[in-house]
Write a structure and sequence with these properties.
elongated; about 90 residues; five-stranded antiparallel sheet; Immunoglobulin-like; single chain; mainly beta
Length: about 90
């Protein structure tokens, strides 16, 4: 098993809520498949996720993070980040 460390943070000002969604994806049979996900929300200026997950060896993995900010209950903006693929 390979040890995967997941760290993601989003900072935003003048918003009511921040949400982060994080996905570990495994490349299997020609497709990226989500094998584990986490989410967190905050009403502060920052929101973060820090987790450890053990993955099967012999595959490529990547991290996908989506951050969303809201004001007055309305989504203002969404951004995403996809890491490079890593072999375990």
């Amino acid at each position: 098993m390979g040890k995967s460390t997941v760290d993601s943070a989003l900072y935003a000002f003048s918003v009511d809520k921040i949400r982060i969604d994080v996905y570990i994806q495994q490349y299997k049979n020609g497709n990226w498949v989500t094998i584990k996900s986490w989410s967190n929300t905050s009403t502060d200026i920052s929101c973060s996720i820090s987790e450890i997950w053990y993955v099967d060896e012999g595959y490529y993995y990547r991290l996908v993070t989506k951050g969303t900010v809201y004001r007055n209950g309305v989504q203002l903006e969404q951004a995403s980040y996809t890491s490079d693929a890593h072999w375990y």
